[in-house]
Amino acid sequence: MKIVRVGFDVPLDRLFDYRCDDARESDIGARVLAPFGKRSMVGVILEITDTSSVAIARLKPITKMLREAPGFSPDDIQLTRFAADYYQHPLGAVVMSALPVGLRRARKTPVKSLTHYGLTALGATRTVDSLPARAATQRRLLALFLAHRSLDDAAVRACAPTAKIALRQLIESGYVATCEGALTHAPDATTPNAPEIIGPPLTPDQAAAVTALLADLSAFKAHLLLGVTGSGKTEVYLRTIDAVLKKGRQALLLVPEISLTPQLEATVRGRFPDTKIVSLHSGLNDTERLNHWIAAQSGAARIVLGTRLAVFAPLPELGLIVVDEEHDASFKQNEGFRYSARDLAVVRARQRGVPIVLGSATPALETYHNAVGKRYALVRLPTRVNNTPPRIVCINTRDVRLDNGFAPPLLTALRERLARREQSLVFINRRGYSPVLMCHDCGWLSGCHRCSAKLVLHAHDRRLHCHHCGYQSKVPMACPDCGNADLSPLGQGTQRIEATLAERFPQARILRIDRDSTRARGAWSGMRDRIEAREVDILVGTQILAKGHDFANLSLVCVVNADNLLYSTDFRAPERLYALLTQVAGRAGRGVTQGDVLIQTEFPTHPLYAALRDQDTARFADDLLKERRSAGFPPFQYQALLRAEAPQLDTAIQWLTRAAERAREIDDAVMVYDPVPAGMMRLAGRERAQLLVQSSSRNRLQRFLAAWRDALSEKKASAARWSIDVDPLEF
Ligand code: ADP
Ligand code: ZN
Ligand code: ZN
Questions:
Q1: Where in the chain is the domain with CATH 3.30.70.360?
Q2: Whose CA is nearest to atom 2 of ligand 1?
Q3: Given this model, what pLDDT does residue 432 score?
Q4: Ligand 2 centroid – CA 471 distance (Å)
Q5: For the chain, which terminal residue's Cβ has fewer other Cβ atoms within 10 angstroms, N or C?
Q6: Given this model, what pLDDT does residue 162 score?
Q7: Fold of 3-109
Q8: Class of 391-434+491-627 in CATH
Q9: CB–CB of 3/50 below 8 Å?
Q10: Residue 357 pLDDT > 80
Q11: d(C-alpha 173, C-alpha 170), whole Å
Q12: What is the C-alpha separation between 447 and 449, in angstroms, rounded?
C-alpha cells in the first residue's frame, strides 16, 4: 500500500496522508486533488511512504493526479523545504505559494497561446527617428520591435503600461500587426545571420569584473558587485548572462520592483533579441504568470526576470542568479510567509552549484560583512563609466535662514538650472515625515482613531487620510481640543514644497511624483515620457524617484529634509538613509552635464554625510559594522521577532510575556528581550506587540525557534494571533 504525504495551503504545520496505490517515486512534487474536510483541495505530494500514523482503513484516497502541468522538481522541493524550515512557516503553505495562482486551483488550466504582435515589412523599414520626438512611448516600443520582430502582450506592457495606446498607433500606421499562433523567438528567416549585438566595449574595471565573475561558472560562488551609481553594473550582468546562455544554461535576474524598472527589462530584451525572456511579477495576470512559469520550467525561457516571488521559479538548467539592488528592502516579504528573496537566492545558488551576483552601490551590511569576511568575493566598480561623479555639498541649515523650507543656495541652484534648461529633482524624504495637521496653540495632532498613525493632509481633495489603515475624514474647522481655528500642517510634505516652488518659479513646469500620483496604472510611465521629452523642469518626489532611473537632462538634485531619518530609533536607519541618498544623488548628471547634489542638514559633519560626500561606501560600511559589533546587532547577531496581535494591547503583551518565559526554558543562551508595542501599534482595530530574540549563532537560533514554535502551537486556541519573523527588517 502506497501512502502519499501532501502539503496544502493551510496554516497547519503538517502534511496530510492519503492512499495512492500507483504512486511512484517520481510523483514527489506532483500536484494532486484530494478531499480535505468537506472540500476538495489542490496540494503537492511531498513524500511517499508505506506507513501512516493514521489507521490505514481511515485513510482516504486522493481524488486525482493533476498531470496537465508538471509539478516541482526535487531541486524545487529542496528549496521550499529549506525556506519553510528557516522561516518557520508551514511547508504546504510555502510550496503552494511558490506555484502560480493558475496551478493552485483545481480547475483545468489550459495553457493558452497569448496574443502577440509582429513587425510588418513596412515597420522594418522605419527607424525610431522617423517618429516624432514627443511620441516617446511609441519610439521606445518601435525600438523593441526592431530588435525583436515580435513581442507578446506582457513584453509590450513591460515597455510602459501606456504602451497599449502606443501599440494601437503603431498598428494603425501599419508598422505592427497582430499575429496568431505560438510566439517564436527563433531568428526570423528573412534576416539570416542577424549580427550579434555585443554592447559597448567594456571599461577596464568592467572587464576585470566580468573576468572574475566568469572564472568558474560550474560551481557555487557568491559575488558582491559593489559599483557606484552609473558604474555600468547592468553591462556586467549582461555579459555574464550572455556567457551563461552560451553554455546552454538559464539565468535568473531578480530586481526589486519591476513596475518601476521597465527600463531594465527593455535593456535585457534589446540585448538578447533571439532569446526567450519571461518576466515574473505581480503586474502580470494569472494566465501570463502561468505561461511564463511553464516557459521557465520547460526550459523554453532562457532568462527569467522577476521580483522576489521569481526566486521560486522552476529552472531546470539554472546556471546563474543575479540580484540587482540587493540591499533593497522589497526583497523581503513582510506578511504571511516572511522570506528574504535575496537570502533564498544565495541558498538556491549553493544548492544548485551555480554562481550568484549580488549587485549594489550600497550593499546591505549583512552582504558587505560576508564580503569583508571572504565568504563572498568582492568585485568593485569604483568609477562612473561616462562622466564624473556628482558633486555633493551639504548646506548647514543652522547657518542660513530658510525660505519656506528652502535654504537660499537651493533656490539659486534651481534658478540656474531653469535658465540653462536643465532638469532638477527636489527629493523629499517621506519616511517619518508627512503633513500632519497641528494646532499650534495646544499641540493637538490629527491622529487616526482606528490606528496609532497620524492622519495626513492631502491638498488635492482637502481631506485627511490615514496611510496605514485607509481611514479618511474631513479637515476639522477648528481644533477639536481647544477650538483654535488656525490649524496648519506640521513640517513640509510634498505638496507644500510643490506649492513653494510654484510660487518661486512661476514659469517652471513642476511635476510631483510619489505613491499617490503614480498609483494609477500607467501614470508613472506617462510621467517618465514627459521627463524624457523635457516637458518637465522640476521633479518633486519621494523614494520612488531614487530607484535606478536614468534621466539624461537632470543635473541637480536637492535634498530638503534628510535629517529625520538620521536619529530614528531603528538601528538600520543610517544604513537606509545612506543607501537612499546615494541612489538619489546618483540621479544627478547621468547625461553629459556635471551633476550637483545639495543636501540641507543641521548636521553637516555627521560621518554619514562625510562618507556620502566622498562617495566612500566602504568606509561608511566599515564604521557601521564596528558600531553594530559593539552594540550587538546584526550581522553579528541573528534575530527573530515574535509578532502578536489581539483586540487589546494588554492581551498581546501578556501572551508575549508567557511566550518569553517559555523561550527562557527552551534555551537560556538565546537572548530574550521584553515584549513591546509594535512600531505601528494599532492596525485596523487590532493592537500589535512584538518580542525580539537573538543569538550569535544562526544554527542555535534556528534550533531554538523550531522548539519555541512547537511549544507556542501546543495550545489549540491562542489569545493572540502570532507569527515569527526571522531576520526581521521592520520593527
Ligand atoms: P549602474 O547600474 O551601475 O548605476 P548602469 O548600468 O545604469 O550603471 O550604467 C550607467 C550608464 O553607462 C548607462 O547609460 C550604460 O548604458 C552606460 N554604460 C555602461 N557600460 C558602458 C560601457 N562599457 N561603455 C559605454 N557606456 C556604458
Ligand atoms: Zn488646539
Ligand atoms: Zn488609521
A1: 638-726
A2: 233
A3: 44
A4: 22
A5: N
A6: 77
A7: GIY-YIG endonuclease (3.40.1440)
A8: alpha beta
A9: yes
A10: yes
A11: 5
A12: 6
